[in-house]
UniProtKB/TrEMBL annotation, chain A:
Belongs to the pyruvate:ferredoxin/flavodoxin oxidoreductase family. This is Pyruvate ferredoxin oxidoreductase alpha subunit. GO terms for biological process: response to oxidative stress. Residues 275-364 form the Pyruvate:ferredoxin oxidoreductase core domain. Keywords: Oxidoreductase, Pyruvate. It comes from Candidatus Hakubella thermalkaliphila.
TrEMBL record, chain B:
Transmembrane segments: none annotated. PANTHER family: PYRUVATE SYNTHASE SUBUNIT PORB (PTHR42897). This is Pyruvate ferredoxin oxidoreductase beta subunit. The keyword Amino-acid biosynthesis does not apply. It comes from the Bacteria. SUPFAM superfamilies: Thiamin diphosphate-binding fold (THDP-binding) (SSF52518). Pfam families: TPP_enzyme_C (PF02775). One of its GO terms (molecular function) is thiamine pyrophosphate binding. Keywords: Pyruvate. Gene3D superfamilies: 3.40.50.970.
Length: 380, 285
């Protein structure tokens, strides 16, 4: 293994001198994993994710990752990831689009088992006829799996969110999986300036005994020994046990909020939040919205921007407060179903002022003019 | 496992459950016990909620009593009848989902190798015939292709018993079960032969009708997996509930099937595994 100095997460995130490099999102992922002290990574190809796990394979060859292999399909990979995590190592994988749905059964099982897995999702379309193009529709499916969900706008976000995801996922009061979502191609395959830490430093290792559930290593008491398993019992005690467990997973995600504030600076970021017209977006829709707002400004129109970084937990209170005075709320999205719009409508007090769209999907780009047209319409 | 880890702190003896106290005082950890010692020690399986006469429950008891290294064994199970018994087993065991046991076991074994390079940690996947030969077949076979150091044990009750008795790939041809209302149209999957062909170093078929030979097979399955590569043991566990025979006839059923030629105990051992076993088994004498 390559020698790297272990530093406190706060040092790595906020204090280390960073170098600016011009790299793709996939390369930013490699740089993050290089400094994440990952024990094991398990891969499976799918466009547009494949390159990122190739690069993690390079890290294995270079001695930054201790174990790496290709599994047989996404469900198997995610299952092996669960086994590795239960065995007490820090483990990473990535997928996207149809891969996410192929593996889908495992995500609530990850959360229920309290495994602190970090998984990158490079989003793409899941429809038939076959598409490999950008689309965030898989996030709609992921909303209720119990995992924490971050949405990266840029390669810089992807780098930072991945590193911070390990630290947040492994907090004993959280200890549930964190998914870091990045829009396929738009983030993974385009180059931008990314500030990265020195390669000589890395996060502290995972301490498996900080887990709120027993590590499956026979080095701690086999406490699962119980007299009457409630797996299928039809009685109140069994229902209550399952119900409280589900609530505990939700509560774990709630407890992540304070860590998200500490490490990500909050669940949202705002620009000109006092404006009458607010655009609320996540992922690369944020960048397109920023362009649209600049164009609107040239026309003398005043619009503000709310970037949502954490989709789960969702910034309910933040959105409720931010939208109180706004005349209109525009929610541009890279998917057909408008899952973010639905989330926002569920928390805005007068949700008739929420404009669902513009929406593009099937791989389309989102010209800022589409968003500008909505700003113009709402300004009338 | 360091036995001190689970010793009861002074003053707490009286509030710990009886079965836990018994495990600490009379459990099998580190004692090198086996099937012939049953009745003299606290078994790893604390009762069980399975049906009267369940061949699977009997097999599981015998398998657990045969573990060569229970203090450092982690079991990965799957959904099915056996998943009702595993919460009452006194070694770490994982239930993840239906059919993914060999994938989970692959990740687990590699993780334990990283964390305990100097120590033996046996990872054993124990699941039913549906989980092993049907829904989980790709993950079972890929763990074999990858030469994972895990032991795979199928509890073959020839049906999806926990869901009420549906046909599985391991049901004999012609059997009328749910989802095969006109009788099963194709023969029992020959997974032992498949396992041999894809390179499992040790493959065996046994049953609880012969506890001592079964014990030997379990030990061989785990010892070869530890040292060489994937191994497979298929245990015939007839199901009185879904095959509708009397609970006391389970063992007789196995013997009857053996007589008919529809169940055969057998072993396939590679040369490499045979060398290892000869060395280990001679050393024991």
């Amino acid at each position: 293994m390559i020698e790297q100095k272990i530093v406190e997460p706060e040092y790595l995130f906020f204090q280390a001198d960073r170098e600016e490099v011009f790299i793709t999102g996939s390369e930013a992922l490699k740089e993050a994993i290089k400094r994440a002290n990952v024990d094991m990574a398990i891969s499976y190809p799918i466009t547009p994710q494949s390159e990122s796990m190739h690069l993690v394979g390079d890290l294995y060859v270079e001695g930054y990752v201790r174990e790496y292999f290709r599994g047989e399909n996404e469900f198997a990979v995610m299952s092996a990831v669960a086994g590795a995590s239960m065995g007490g190592v820090r483990v990473f994988t990535a997928t996207g689009g149809p891969g996410t749905l192929r593996a889908f059964e495992i995500f609530p099982a990850w959360a229920g088992a309290r495994v602190p897995v970090v998984c990158a999702f490079m989003t793409r379309g899941v429809n038939s006829p076959l598409s490999i193009q950008p689309d965030t529709i898989e996030m709609a499916f992921m909303l209720h799996t119990g995992i924490v969900m971050f949405h990266a706008e840029t390669a810089q976000d992807l780098y930072d969110m991945l590193l911070k995801a390990f630290v947040i996922a492994e907090k004993p009061d959280v200890h549930i999986p964190v998914g870091v979502f990045a829009d396929g191609f738009f983030v993974t395959h385009t180059r931008e300036k990314v500030k990265i830490d020195p390669a000589e430093i890395k996060l502290p290792p995972y301490n498996p005994y900080s887990s709120p559930v027993p590590v499956m290593d026979m080095e701690n008491v086999p406490v699962r020994h119980m007299r009457d398993p409630f797996v299928m019992k039809s009685n109140f005690i069994s229902y209550a046990a399952h119900a409280s467990w589900q609530q505990e997973i939700l509560a774990a995600a709630e407890r992540a909020r304070k860590h998200i504030h500490k490490y990500l600076g909050g669940l949202v970021e705002t620009e000109n939040e006092e404006a009458e017209i607010l655009i609320i977006a996540s992922g690369t829709a944020v960048s397109q919205s920023r362009e649209a707002i600049a164009l609107a400004c040239q026309e003398g129109l005043n619009a503000g921007l709310v970037k949502i970084k954490s989709i789960r937990p969702f910034p309910e209170e933040e959105i409720r407060k931010l939208t109180q005075k706004a005349k209109a709320v525009i929610v541009p999205e890279f998917n057909r179903v408008g899952w973010l719009c639905k989330e926002i409508k569920s928390v805005v007090e007068d949700n008739t002022k929420v404009v669902g769209g513009p929406r593009v999907f099937g791989g389309m780009t989102m010209p800022p003019h589409l968003i500008l047209a909505e700003i113009r319409r709402c300004s009338q | 496992m360091n036995k001190n880890l689970f010793k009861i702190s002074p003053g707490f003896e009286d509030i710990m459950p009886a079965e836990y106290r018994e495990l600490v005082h009379d459990g099998p950890y580190g004692k090198n016990l086996g099937v012939s010692d049953l009745g003299t020690f606290k078994e790893l399986l604390e009762e069980h909620p399975l049906c009267a006469g369940c061949g699977l429950a009997l097999s599981l008891r015998l398998i657990l009593a045969s573990l060569p290294n229970p203090e450092d064994t982690i079991i990965v199970g799957s959904t099915g009848c056996s998943s009702l018994a595993f919460p009452q087993v006194g070694v770490h065991n994982i239930h993840s989902l239906f059919g993914n046991q060999n994938a989970v076991a692959s990740g687990l074994k590699r993780a334990l190798k990283l964390r305990f390079p100097e120590k033996t940690k046996d990872v054993v996947a124990i699941a039913g015939d549906g989980a092993t030969a049907d829904i989980g077949l790709d993950m079972v076979m890929h763990s074999w292709f990858r030469r994972e150091n895990i032991a795979t044990i199928m509890l073959d009750n020839e049906a999806y018993a926990n869901t009420g008795g549906q046909e599985s790939g391991m049901s004999p041809q012609g059997t009328v079960l749910y989802m095969a209302p006109k009788g099963k149209k194709f023969p029992k999957i020959s997974l032992p032969e498949i396992a041999r062909e894809v390179g499992c170093a040790y493959v065996a078929v046994g049953s609880p009708a012969q506890p001592r030979p079964l014990e030997k097979m379990v030990r061989r399955t785990i010892l070869v997996a530890r040292e060489i590569g994937p191994t497979y043991l298929q245990v015939f566990c007839p199901c009185p509930t879904n095959y509708k025979f009397k609970p006391q006839e389970t063992v007789a059923k196995i013997k009857q099937r053996e007589k008919e030629g529809t169940f055969q105990t057998r072993e396939y051992i590679t040369l490499e595994a045979q060398k290892l076993l000869t060395k280990l088994e001679e050393g024991k004498k």
